């Protein structure tokens, strides 16, 4: 995230409050972002910020492993866009809670994260990674487009940036899913498997935000974006010669802090340095 | 020096800072310098990031502060502002000329969105041919993509419409 120096003093303060006493006492995030305490606006910002950071981290895991150099660059670039979006959203949330973006990213445990479960699933193969990016971007684009008109100036400003970035991601993911689905028998099978496996995780994208925030025009109502999402996804699946799975049981939990086991492993890597060396700077 | 002269000098110092990733262009050429204000001795600069995650944003802010210090304005405040959102339409005519000169196809103005399946190919910055193709949608920096000219066969970078 940003310069760690800004989080250093607060992290030390956190360690002090926890009683210090050695390396086992990790600094705790202030109560505002701990489960159950978050105000509606902070929660709405964390949902979007956590979506961006967790998916950005997953995409960054491809660095050094992508199937071709151009995709190495693409995945790293997209990851960077997501991390940039997360930073802006955390800065906005932190202005309300008195935290820095670093504290929000590095000092929360899994139950305090509010990303949708689809973001934290392991990358799987390249088809799974691209199918997820398509399904998520097809939601994020209309979400940010609608949020450009937010009555909250900070959210509107972030939305105006994110909307353009996500538009480019969506196009890239759609091109790849079409190429894979309408490719060889093997790439078609992998693309269809990916879409089938991801489908039960798409329902959570539309889970409602705080009613009052929606009514005040601060955040868009995710439920109102279903038609836009479906149109994009269906158009892509048809071109990709893939079958749209039936809607059935939908997974949920991430938005209220109940995560898959995968998030803890991801955070162990994402947060390692701050956990091992609290308040360290570079 | 009078107030207006000092402001002009501060503005020139900030405007002349090169982009760390495309040093042939200044941040003013790229339309990233939104405002320079002088209150007493304090300089306040507003810069606009191209992409939210662009790693050049922090070095640019540091370079602007250093350039102002060298011009006699120590302790300048450099803010990164998101509103209005930067767009590739903000790149100046001079900036577009410099981009083409160093082999980067300038972004089309008012390009808006490609949509999901649209195709738009920039003209080759070397031979001017309109017959080009994209090699990769993402390049060495967030703001560029990789293309190839099908006439002169040379690969080239294109500044993304954003």
Characteristics:
heterodimer; A: mainly alpha; Ferritin; 0% strand; disordered N terminus; B: alpha/beta; GMP Synthetase, Chain A, domain 3; four-stranded mixed beta sheet
List the helices and strands and how they pair.
The complex is a heterodimer of chains A (282) and B (162).
Chain A: H1 5-17, H2 40-60, H3 69-97, H4 101-106, H5 117-120, H6 126-147, H7 153-181, H8 185-198, H9 211-215, H10 226-239, H11 261-270, H12 272-276
Chain B: H1 3-15, E1 33-39, E2 42-47, H2 57-70, E3 77-80, H3 93-101, E4 104-105, E5 132-136, E6 144-149, E7 155-159
Parallel strand pairs in B: 2-3, 4-7
Antiparallel strand pairs in B: 1-2, 5-6, 6-7
Helix pairs in contact in B: 1-2
Record field, number of beta strands of chain A = 0
Give, in order, the helices and strands of chain A. HHHHHHHHHHHH
Structural class of chain B: alpha/beta
State the domain count of chain B: 2
Radius of gyration of chain A: 19 Å
**Protein chain pair with the most extensive contact, residues per chain:** A-B, 34 and 25 residues
Tell me the β content of chain B. 15-25%
CATH third-tier fold name of chain A? Ferritin
Helix and strand content put the structural class of chain A at mainly alpha
Query: How much helical structure, as a percent, in the residues of chain B?
Result: 10-25%
Biggest sheet of chain A, open or closed, and with what strands and sense? none
Give a structural overview.
- The complex is a heterodimer of chains A (282) and B (162).
- Chain A is an all-alpha fold and 282 residues long.
- Chain A has a single domain, classed as Up-down Bundle (Ferritin), CATH 1.20.1260.
- Helix content of chain A is 61%, strand content 0%.
- Chain A contains 12 helices and no strands.
- Chain A has helices at residues 5-17, 40-60, 69-97, 101-106, 117-120, 126-147, 153-181, 185-198, 211-215, 226-239, 261-270, 272-276.
- In chain A, helix 6 (126-147) crosses helix 8.
- Chain B is an alpha/beta fold and 162 residues long.
- In chain B, the strands form 2 sheets. In chain B, strands 4-7-6-5 form a 4-stranded mixed sheet. A 3-stranded mixed sheet of chain B has the order 1-2-3, with helices on one face.
- In chain B, strand 1 (33-39) and strand 2 form a beta hairpin.
- The radius of gyration of chain B is 18 Å and the shape is elongated.
- The N and C termini of chain B lie far apart (40 Å).
- The mean pLDDT of chain B is 92.
- Classes of the chains: A mainly alpha (282), B alpha/beta (162).
- At the A-B interface, helix 3, helix 7 and helix 10 of A face loops of B.
């Amino acid at each position: 995230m940003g310069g760690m120096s800004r989080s250093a003093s607060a992290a030390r303060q956190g360690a002090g409050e926890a009683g210090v006493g050695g390396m086992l006492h990790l600094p705790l995030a202030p109560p505002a972002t701990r489960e159950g305490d978050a105000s509606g606006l902070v929660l709405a910002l964390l949902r979007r910020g956590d979506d961006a950071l967790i998916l950005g981290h997953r995409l960054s895991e491809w660095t050094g492993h992508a199937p071709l150099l151009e995709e190495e660059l693409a995945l790293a670039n997209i990851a960077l866009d997501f991390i940039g979006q997360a930073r802006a959203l955390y800065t906005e949330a932190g202005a309300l809670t008195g935290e820095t973006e670093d504290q929000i990213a590095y000092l929360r445990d899994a139950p305090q994260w509010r990303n949708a479960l689809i973001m934290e699933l392991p990358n799987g193969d390249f088809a799974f990674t691209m199918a997820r990016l398509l399904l998520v971007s097809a939601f994020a684009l209309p979400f940010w487009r609608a949020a450009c008109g937010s009555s909250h100036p900070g959210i509107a400003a972030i939305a105006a940036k994110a909307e353009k970035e996500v538009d480019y991601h969506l196009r890239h993911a759609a091109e790849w899913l079409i190429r894979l689905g309408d490719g060889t028998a093997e790439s078609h099978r992998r693309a269809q498997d990916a879409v089938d496996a991801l489908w039960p995780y798409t329902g959570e994208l539309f889970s409602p935000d705080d009613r009052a925030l929606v009514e005040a025009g601060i955040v868009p109502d995710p439920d109102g974006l279903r038609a836009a999402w479906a149109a994009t996804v269906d158009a892509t699946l048809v071109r990709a010669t893939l079958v749209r799975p039936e809607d059935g049981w939908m997974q949920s939990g991430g938005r209220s802090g109940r995560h898959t086991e995968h998030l803890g492993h991801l955070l162990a890597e994402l947060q390692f340095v701050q956990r091992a060396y609290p308040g360290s700077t570079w | 020096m009078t107030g207006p002269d000092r402001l002009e000098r501060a503005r020139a110092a900030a405007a002349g800072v090169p982009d760390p990733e495309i040093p042939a262009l200044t941040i003013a050429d790229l339309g990233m310098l939104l405002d320079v204000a002088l209150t007493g001795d304090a300089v306040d600069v507003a810069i606009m990031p191209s992409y939210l995650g662009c790693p050049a944003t922090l070095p640019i802010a540091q370079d602007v502060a250093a350039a102002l210090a060298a011009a006699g304005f120590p302790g300048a405040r450099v803010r990164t502002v998101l509103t209005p959102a930067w767009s590739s339409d903000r790149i100046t005519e001079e900036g577009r000329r410099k981009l083409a000169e160093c082999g980067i196809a300038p972004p089309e103005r008012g390009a808006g969105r490609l949509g999901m399946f649209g195709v738009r190919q920039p003209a080759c910055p070397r031979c001017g041919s309109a017959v080009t193709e994209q090699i990769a949608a993402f390049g060495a920096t967030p703001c560029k993509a990789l293309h190839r000219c099908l006439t002169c066969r040379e690969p080239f970078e294109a500044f993304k419409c954003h």
